[in-house]
Specification:
Blueprint: H1 11-14, H2 27-37, E1 41-50, E2 53-61, E3 67-73, E4 79-84
Length: 85
């Protein structure tokens, strides 16, 4: 008897930059790193592919209403850039 629900792995997904195997930290960990740099509230968080690197782009609104964009490397957890929007 065969398993009718079995699906052959998608080779496209195996090599796709969004595959979790290409990042060592989670979105939640990246948000915590970003909040250590810029205290406030996370309003948006995305996984991006930027110049050959997988990064998290975290947008934070501070208590005084300013909005910052923090880029965190998805492999090292290192803050790459902090920018006032």
């Amino acid at each position: 008897m065969t398993n009718q629900n079995w699906v052959e792995p998608n080779p496209y997904w195996a090599n796709h930059w969004q595959n979790p195997q290409y990042r060592l930290i989670s979105m939640e960990e990246a948000m915590m790193v970003a909040l250590q740099q810029v205290p406030g509230q996370v309003v948006k968080a995305e996984l991006e592919y930027d110049h050959g690197a997988v990064i998290y782009e975290i947008e934070i609104r501070t208590r005084d209403g300013q909005k910052y964009q923090v880029k965190v490397d998805a492999n090292s957890g290192k803050v790459l850039k902090v920018k006032l929007d």
